[in-house]
Amino acid sequence: MWHRYGMTSAAPVRKLLLDCDPGLDDALAILLAAGDPDLELVGITTVGGNVGLDGTTRNALQLREYFQIDGVPVAAGADQPLSRAAETAEHVHGASGLGDVVLAEATLAIEARSAIDFLIDTIRDAPGQIHLVATGPLTNIALALRQEPRLTEWVASFTIMGGSYTRGNATPAAEFNIFADPEAAAEVFAAGWTVTMIGLDLTLQAIVTDAVGERMKALGPLGTDLVEPLATFWKNPLDDQWDGQALHDVCAVAFVARPELFTSKPARVEIELAGEFTAGMTVVDFHSDAPNALVPMRLDVAGFWDYVFAAWGNVEPRG
Ligand code: RIB
Ligand code: CA
Fold first, then answer.
1. Chain segment 223-248, per-residue pLDDT in tens
2. Which among 175, 249, 253 is the best mutation to test ligand 1's pocket, defined by most ligand atoms within 8 Å of the CB?
3. Helix, strand or coil for residue 213?
4. How many folded domains does the chain comprise?
5. Per the domain annotation, does 4 fall within a domain?
6. Residue 63 counted as domain residue
């Protein structure tokens, strides 16, 4: 089979395990993983973040049934950061974590194992096959690495939505997922693998403009009942430099499926833990000779939206 660029055989289906804190954009990342035929969502693990663990887990269980991906296990993880007090973001995601979207109560059982045990078992039992993606605070990932450091050898790849090489959003210096558990992020970036860090500099190119919002409504009930309301719930009165919400977490799943939509550079990423004003900052050195990360910087925005809408359109919501 020819493998010249553009002449490759159909890409193999990529197995994806998503650790998340749904969450407006986490929900749309789950939808992307559910709709892309080139991805097999092998599990969802939840962590406290945008709202507490009970809320993120409830949301994941409800979304699983609404998207009709009933066979995907959902396992609950850490409710608290490794050492700091919990930070949540109801002011952005709403009290429930899903804005003003109300879904049917879940009827299917949660995974009996904890998220940490589920992550370790799933990755160990499929060495070199699991693309691990984290779109919330990195507490579950850090705890799993403490229990089984060989995860770094077994994963096919590891991608996060988090950090920034310029400004933050939780504070002027720190992006929320890192700010919520800086100690976990520090352990994760120091674990010896390559972390693909999809930061705010990239995700703020995936803005829900009015035109994108109209495309969402054209998805039918999925669009009008869920996608558009989630993607337009948060209006930031302070940051008038963007004309819409950014779908941060969707970018992380898209990277696994369509890396060609991203232009990236290697870098050394360290996490600031002690700064009075900079705790949780990702300090990104693009000139290091000891990189531990790949940092996507530029997004093919038109290609991204075309890909995302094609995948989302494959999902038939449970009526
Ligand atoms: O800073 C954006 C990130 O924080 C996203 O993952 C969003 O869901 C929140 O968790
Ligand atoms: Ca998230």
1. 999 999 999 998 766 555 666 899 99
2. 249
3. helix
4. 1
5. no
6. yes
